[in-house]
Amino acid sequence: xxxxxxxxxxxxxxxxxxxxxxxxxxxxxxxxxxxxxxxxxxxxxxxxxxxxxxxxxxxxxxxxxxxxxxxxxxxxxxxxxxxxxxxxxxxxxxxxxxxxxxxxxxxxxxxxxxxxxxxxxxxxxxxxxxxxxxxxxxxxxxxxxxxxxxxxxxxxxxxxxxxxxxxxxxxxxxxxxxxxxxxxxxxxxxxxxxxxxxxxxxxxxxxxxxxxxxxxxxxxxxxxxxxxxxxxxxxxxxxxxxxxxxxxxxxxxxxxxxxxxxxxxxxxxxxxxxxxxxxxxxxxxxxxxxxxxxxxxxxxxxxxxxxx
Amino acid sequence: xxxxxxxxxxxxxxxxxxxxxxxxxxxxxxxxxxxxxxxxxxxxxxxxxxxxxxxxxxxxxxxxxxxxxxxxxxxxxxxxxxxxxxxxxxxxxxxxxxxxxxxxxxxxxxxxxxxxxxxxxxxxxxxxxxxxxxxxxxxxxxxxxxxxxxxxxxxxxxxxxxxxxxxxxxxxxxxxxxxxxxxxxxxxxxxxxxxxxxxxxxxxxxxxxxxxxxxxxxxxxxxxxxxxxxxxxxxxxxxxxxxxxxxxxxxxxxxxxxxxxxxxxxxxxxxxxxxxxxxxxxxxxxxxxxxxxxxxxxxxxxxxxxx
Lengths: 308, 307
Fold this sequence. Notes:
The complex is a heterodimer of chains A (308) and B (307). Chain A is mainly α and 308 residues long. Chain A has a single domain (30-304), classed as MetI-like fold. In chain A, 69% of the residues lie in helices and 0% in strands. Chain B has helices at 2-29, 35-38, 46-55, 62-74, 88-123, 128-142, 145-159, 172-201, 204-211, 216-228, 230-234, 236-253, 259-269, 272-300. Chain B has 307 residues and is an all-alpha fold. The longest helix of chain B is centred in the middle third of the chain and has 36 residues, at 88-123. Chain B has a domain at 89-300: Orthogonal Bundle (MetI-like fold), CATH 1.10.3720.10. The interface between A and B is large, with 42 and 49 residues.
């Protein structure tokens, strides 16, 4: 047997000298690798830090907010930004800064939970369609095609029209309209993973479907799903606040970034701050998520792996 | 080529069927008895409920109702609005024109801005111009359409009075809405054009053109641009969804008539025939345009035909 390309087999070959072992690079995992690359990406780190800060502000809103977000103050009606009201006050004299902080407690979860719904259901359907194939695959994928035939906002509006407006229905509507993308991407990844030799090998030694899917196929589809979900949260926050802006989501007086913008629309001429700051909050959040998502994509894309 | 076209058309037919099935089922998927929809929230006596059920065929089995629905559709009958009793098709065909105009103007802005930014970024790769173009693109992708619309309205209508805030007559009323819609798409297009242009500029035939002594301008416009724009055509379907979404929101901001306004009013009134009609027509238009885009892509890029 030629020595070129030969593998070390315990019990057959003598153990390599300790010095050689010490020279070998430490074993690396995909997650560890990806995280190292992510940390070297200043844009992604900036996005991550900004996102953590935004989420923290929303969680701590009851502690930080100087005013009750719903309390009206007739002495502060349409007050311009000042030391008392950092972001000014709206036409009911409500503090815009406090409302923006509280608004994050609606807008952020809507995006996050909608994408959780979309990812969990979408991935499950994609796994089933890709792994089992046949009639099940055809049935699922035809429905995915039909759902993709509606521009996202239209599908979400149709679902709100069917179910009525509420916080949960808003999440469901945004989630369902984001779902088909996951099914399509996952199915594609499953189809190529199913044909790999290690999956065939695992099947040959008698591994059950459950093990094959969970241990051998699922890790393959995880990177694209993580990237899709991260960027998807940004899209879901925009779609959720768009629906609220159109009056089809969270209704006032409950503060939410989209409906605050809609409130301020009629007074933009004289009191720009009423809609400027909630809009800025959406924009900065989405910007932070996009920076992080782009970084994650670069970090998780195995094709870039060996390029330093 | 013919085979590709036929296959692609054959794929669109079940999708269109699915779309009709979805819009048909919409009124049946609402919580509660579908009869309540037609009563528009007013209390109903059992006799009146029975009457409505019979009038709208709700007493028939579901598959038969779907058959009737499809039969009416094929005759161009989308039913009547519950509020104004006007044929839904009349309301929609009236609203579709301004929406299409707005979408096309938005597309023009998106292409002009996106292709320019993308080319500049690629030619001056790794320069400050590249960074600036990509920063603009990142902001464009991250700005919600309704926020951009309001900012433009505030700046150009109320501060410097350059363009009117509302109205639909004259090109001046179109500028702000078109930019509002087109900006986000231009950001995607700029990113696409930049990366595909960088790819194309590395090709051998571009090196050959340079070696012949052609100047940069000719190399870019004559040799590289056409191939660099292919991905823009491919992603047009996705862009269209974005533009339509933008149109719905922009109509609301600039108080323009259109399909988006019809849909929102219909949803607020729970006017189901009108909601179903709008959803159906928009989806069908979207599917057909995507189909045309796919077919034209096969004409532009011969490689696709053999896949």
